[in-house]
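request received
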Amino acid sequence: MDEHNRTGRFGGRVCTRFPPEPNGYLHIGHAKSINLNYGLAADYGGHFNLRMDDTNPEKEEQEYVSSIIDDVRWLGARWPGMRADDPKAGVLWGSNYFDHMYAWAVELIKKGKAYVCDLAADEMSRTRGTLTTPGQDSPFRSRSIAENLDLFERMRKGEFPDGTKTLRAKIDMAHANLNLRDPVMYRIMHATHHNTGDKWCIYPMYDWAHGFEDALEGITHSICTLEFENHRPLYDWFIDAVNAGRTDDGSGPWGKKIHHPQQIEFARLNLTYTVMSKRRLLELVKSGRVRGWDDPRMPTVSGMRRRGYTSEAIREFCRRIGVSKVESTVDVALLEHCVREHLNKVAPRVMGVLRPLKLVIDNYPDGQAEELDAINNPEDESAGTRKVPFSKVLYIEHDDFRETPPPKYWRLYPGNEVRLRYAYFVKCTGCTKDAFGHVVEVHCTYDPATRGGDAPDGRKVKSTMHWVSAAHALPVEVRLYDHLFTRPDPDDVSDDALRAAGEGEAPAEPSAAGRPLTPLPLREGLGEGRSAGQPDATSADATAQDWKSNLNPNSLETIHPAYVEPSVANAAPETRYQFERHGYFCVDPDSDAAPGNVAADPGVGRSTPGARRLVFNRTVTLKDTWAKIEKKGT
RNA sequence: UGGGGAUUAGUGUAACGGUAGCACGACUGACUCUGGAUCAGUUAGCCCAGGUUCGAAUCCUGGAUCCCCAGCCA
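response:
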């Protein structure tokens, strides 16, 4: 762009666009493109268009249009004519340019650069030649201009059935670039278009349409992915063909030249432990292996949003990965780092116990309760403080107690003293077990002098633990997510993965987060477990040996109930918190409306606020040094 | 064996004839009322071979490897 500005190629103007085909939901790869295009326009003081590339009525749906618009807005891109009250305001449509395209097609016919071809699809394929051998001219290549004009007009009128005729560019059937071997410009498709209805029964192909969409909008830099590099000569050829005979001032038979944008390619984004193609994401959705396009495990924009990722984090991620023409796979750890980095600054802290274990403070008065001050966000003083209820019986994390502590374990074990965050020092006196030897209750005594969490005598404890008061805590559902696939590259179906599949087990590699999920009685579901490691009777036969065999059977674990401090009771969906020592969590839309919102809906009488169903998604874990130590020890 | 691209630490990305840098990851350590955060440090790289040059990741020649293209998809 600097070069173009220097040479004045576009008069110092910069205009970019994001041109999705509405046939699927946007994913993080699209986010990269959106940020690139929008960012460039913003940096160079230009403008950015959101345009639906809707040239194929058979594949496109309204649902996708709405989700795309929603996602692009959420990501922070702004386009001319955008309005808050009307999502579609200012959105552009490739299908709105069909009239222009048709006229230009007629012009090409008149210039002898296009012809109507009667070859069937398979015949055309056969005569296209191969990578190393030239194709053969279509027998219809030399039709007269008059005949072509007549036939094309009749194609438009609907006189011919689908697939019987095409309009082709007359270029070179022997060209080394197969895209230039008389590519199809229009095909016959008697289908109702979501935007143009039944006006057309011929629809333009991508190559024919795309350059003109860019040209009409005055796009300067048409940025696309690497696989379109082979198409750039055709992109240029079509615009040059229209411009042939045209002049800058519009004199002459063909009129004024049209704008010629510059196509530029960059590498699409790949991420470890996930798949990114729309085809594969659709397959996951359709087969029910995820709950939908916005399943929090999906790399879709809506999935990440539902999971609790922020658009700021995604933008920062896009900034850090850079842009190049090298095909690469970015470590998902970088994305997660960006999410933690942002959430650490903005997410209020809260205490929540995922695997509850009862802790009884034997010397705390029965029936007594008090409220303790807790800091909402140590990274943000303006976030203030809140009160957290405390009483004799608490829940602590199951993993925060060991009857016999392993080396370097600083938490609760008989005889050890720890701090309950913002509350008191407590010293473990023992535990009680059930008939099977499972610890069911831990007992301790507290030191009333340490109220608030500091010992007046200056003594230190090695550990600070989170807790909730059993009588006050909110029972909630928590969904823990892990990577969708067990391998960095889902396409890696090497021997051991297959062997594991054959044995009906997940591949041997530990979960990507580096911490195998601990089975507990509370564990409710195994997510999509049926899909990955347990093929039917035929087991690891050839058909099962694809990327889906690497699906992580433990990508979703549901915990119910987990207990969270009462301050989150009324949180709206998408509200994000840090559950201290666990990670970042986000209220899922599956939660019932908060009491405050229920009033708006009289049909839902809800007398007890505490009965609201609350569902949290784990966005990302905190870094867990102890998990590493423990893992090394084993 | 046709055409088009690409190749810098484990990963991603800078340096555009002049000391190969940054981020993530991994590993140490310090600090801490989150085993969080933060801070400090360590680790590790120019695809190969020639050539030009005082000097090459960068320019030239040859080679290797990887990706894309034979839809009436985009």
